[in-house]
Amino acid sequence: MVRANSNWYGQPIFDNISINMDSSEIEDYTTYDGLCFGKISSFNEAFYLALVRWYDYKYKNRLNLYDCSCIKLTSQYEFIPVDSVVKPIYIIP
């Protein structure tokens, strides 16, 4: 279950997710085993799309620290097919 709700039991909740990148685009992005990361902003159920705010790696010269990705939210948003969402992820600030 992935959530994007402005009123989830009185609190807004927008899940962080891992996204399976299309094989034709995988060389265009820095990925972690073919995955990119984003935060769900909303769903468009009619077209089966999710609006995602992208994460990017915080440090280009060191992608991981203790086998964890160091990432930050960007100002870029994009609609993606819902079936490219792999699973929710946990971000430690």
From TrEMBL:
Protein name, entry field: Uncharacterized protein
Q: To which species is this protein native? A: Rhizophagus irregularis
